[in-house]
Amino acid sequence: MNPLTALVADGTLKESAELSAFTTYKFGGSARWLAEVGDDETLHRLVGGLEAHGDVEVAVVGRGSNLVVSDRGFDGVVIRLVGDYLAIDADATPVTAGGAAPLPLLARDTVKAGRGGLEFFVGIPGSVGGAVRMNAGGHGTETADILVEAEVVDLRSGSRSRRSSEDLELRYRHSNLDTHELVTRAWFDTTAQDPEIGERRLREITQWRKEHQPGGTFNAGSVFKNPPGDYAGRIIDDLGLKGFRVGGASVSERHANFFVADPATSAQDIHDLVMEVRSRVSAATGIDLEPEIVFLGEFGHEHG
Ligand SMILES: Cc1cc2nc3c(=O)[nH]c(=O)nc-3n(C[C@H](O)[C@H](O)[C@H](O)COP(=O)(O)OP(=O)(O)OC[C@H]3O[C@@H](n4cnc5c(N)ncnc54)[C@H](O)[C@@H]3O)c2cc1C
Fold it and tell me: Same domain for 98 and 197?
């Protein structure tokens, strides 16, 4: 039996699974196969099947807060961590969290446990695995500063390793993790802190976000990385592109580096808006803005 058919038969893989609910944009097509992996044993079984099959494409989806899934979906296996990988142990030293743990919860749990240093995660609606992959950051701290180690599983070979920020080459919104590498757990450095001080910091950060970001909209955070010494949002705003629209996708009036989607917008609209803004910025300033958001699947009009 084909190894993937065997994984469907034993319930490890689902066929033709919609991905839209797993992203903050709430659009995009289906994965040909979806594996929702809740423990190491299931992960081991999945990796065995992928290894036996050989040439199937794999992709990892976290909380989908930096992700644009193609309307045509993804012709491969999408992996989503659930179950055991949601766990947070804020009393442990170092603080330990599963790859699927939501960052805002990790921030709040560590503050309650009298530990400081992870408060910046409260405003970032991603997962621990996504934060490691993207070196997520804000308010003066980034994941690289507080990550002790991440456990990484190679989905092609099953090999498991523990990697530090240096091993992962974490830089501004960058890591060396490949698409077939899965972050299953991470350990974070924190310092002892009065919970009241932490609570105050959490309130300051959430207040700042309310004032500066387009809350209550479908978006995936910052669209472009900031170029050295400047801000993508400032550049886009200076070109008068706030409110600029392609179909149901538009540049936020509130923050020009956030692109918001009307309900039922296509992923293609967001893709086209990103490309159009990038080309206008390049033509006007010579700066080639690099997307921070991750595109999954195929985009373009030639096939449909
Ligand atoms: C309102 C809003 C505000 C935001 N503010 C910030 C901010 O201040 N700073 C910031 O840095 N980002 C910000 N973001 C972007 C986003 O939240 C972060 O990049 C976050 O780290 C992405 O995590 P995720 O789990 O949602 O990843 P996803 O969007 O699901 O995936 C992003 C990438 O990470 C990979 N990935 C996800 N999980 C894993 C895993 N377990 N193992 C390996 N790879 C994985 C995916 O394959 C993909 O390549 C914001 C987003 C929104 C919507």
Answer: yes
